Amino acid sequence: MPLRLIRPILLGVLTLAFAVAGCRVSQTPADPAVRAQRIHDRFLSIDTHCDTPHNLARSDWKAGEAHDAATRGGGQVDLPRMKRGRLDAEFFAAFVGQGQRTPEGYAKARQAALNQIEAVKTMCREYPNLVGLALTPDDALRLKREGRLIAFISMENGYPIGKDLSLIGDFHELGVRMMTLVHTRDNDICDSSTDQQDPEDAGLSAFGAEVVRACNRAGIIVDVSHASDESFYDVLRETAAPVVASHSCARAVCDNPRNLSDDMLRVLAKNGGVIQICFLSSYVKATPPNPDREQALQDLRKTFGSFRDIRDEATRIKVREAFEAVNRKYPETRATLKDLVDHIDHVRKVVGIDHVGIGTDFDGGGGVIGCNDAGEMFHVTEELLRRGYGEDEIAKIWSGNTLRVFRDVIKVARRLRADAS
Ligand SMILES: [Zn+2]
To answer: Where are the domains positioned within the chain?
Structure first.
């Protein structure tokens, strides 16, 4: 071919090559942090479990102010940090620890749950430009479009309903859209995965089965985190709608009774449900004991007493510096963000991408090195990108799967109510 013909072709090819390269640079920047933040701007992100309402109920703590997770009492979730971490939505759990199963105990628990539900609503009223209460998936998507953060309300522990099934409808009326059936000890509904006092696993009670059906009718997502293995299988047999494990990990990766075995994952996937990977270090990775660090921290406590009780700022600074020195000398053996994403990898491998999400347990013990508060949430996406996850997979993990369950739960509730009338 003559040169005068080759030259324009060559030029054309080169121009096209540069155009493609240029395009790639603008669409997928090399920096995973930038890519991650762009993904978060486009897709809704949901954390299905935090225990922040106990902070919301405090008089000396404001959800609209940014706090520091390293400061005692600062907590891990507030509205400015949700913004910074590109976390759109939280399920704020009204958590009540298991107490006496007596009329007095139930009444006290009910009041504690009501106070926390009210605290979430008060936050929404105090910061209407920053956050709104969501009762449905569509509410959440609308708030995202409006540039506002999203507050869902859940309940951790079914203990506050006592023996009164009608309260499930009442709590739904108040805005509760997810219920963790049990906490660390057995209750009237079912047995817990961690009740040491009664090692026998009786699973779901007859009353518990009614609770599951009542949640199905009301349109409340049933949450099996904290439930014992028997309870898990019983709930999965009983429920008419998909369920979630709002904050649990994979037992094959970290052997802990709070985590789900591969068989449980398969049963959950068959139900259409989702496991929301929890950030609580001992569920993520069994770390070796660190006696030197423990000793150094104990010495600190002996010298200065409880940090919470120190009033003068100079001593506080001194203690913080001493604490940081311990951290440098004997680094903490907490699980890392990479360990956490190993659980996502595992669930994807065993049951596929449609059954995994995120449930941090921030302000309830959650937090790993690399993602220790709401302000660091998009780091999870960075790690997923590094491992080659596609954007649609990341969108499913952050909200697609959870919203699918939520929509199914609402659909089933409508059908059950229509069948009953
Ligand atoms: Zn929990």
So the answer is: 32-287+334-420, 288-333
Distance from the CA of 297 to the center of ligand 1, in angstroms? 26
Would you give the DSSP letter of residue 395? H
Q: How confident is the model at residue 309 (pLDDT cuts 50, 70, 90)?
A: low
What is the pLDDT at residue 47?
98
Q: 192 alpha carbon to ligand 1 midpoint, in Å? A: 11
Output the CA 279–ligand 1 centroid distance in Å: 11
Strand partners, 331: none
90: which DSSP letter?
A: E
Beta 221-223 vs 149-156: how paired, if at all? unpaired
Residue 23 neighbours by CB under 8 Å, 6+ apart: none
Task: Enter the tokens of residue 56.
Answer: 């919301």
265 CA distance to ligand 1 middle (Å): 19
Task: Report helix, strand or coil for 42.
Answer: helix
Q: How many residues does the chain have?
A: 421
Query: What span, in angstroms and rounded, lies between the C-alpha atoms of 244 and 266?
Result: 13
Tell me how far CA of residue 161 lies from CA of 8, 94, 102, 188, 255, in angstroms: 78, 13, 12, 10, 32
Q: How far is the CA of 153 from the centre of ligand 1 (A)?
A: 15
- Expressed in angstroms and rounded, the spacing between residue 236 Cα and the centre of ligand 1 is 19
Q: Please report the beta strands in 215-350, taking only residues with DSSP state E, as ranges in sequence order.
A: 221-223, 244-248, 274-277
Convert the pLDDT of each residue in 312-346 to its tens digit.
778 878 888 888 888 889 887 899 999 999 999 99
Number of Cβ within 10 Å of residue 407's Cβ equals: 14
Q: Are 260 and 252 in contact (CB under 8 A)?
A: no
| pTM for this model (two decimals) | 0.86
Residue 169 one-letter amino acid: G
Distance from the alpha carbon of residue 288 to the mean position of ligand 1, in angstroms: 23
Kindly give the distance from the C-alpha atom of residue 335 to the centroid of ligand 1, in angstroms, as a whole number.
18
32-287+334-420: in CATH 3.20.20.140 = yes
Q: Ligand 1 centroid to 12 CA: how many Å?
A: 61
100/98 Cα distance (integer angstroms): 7
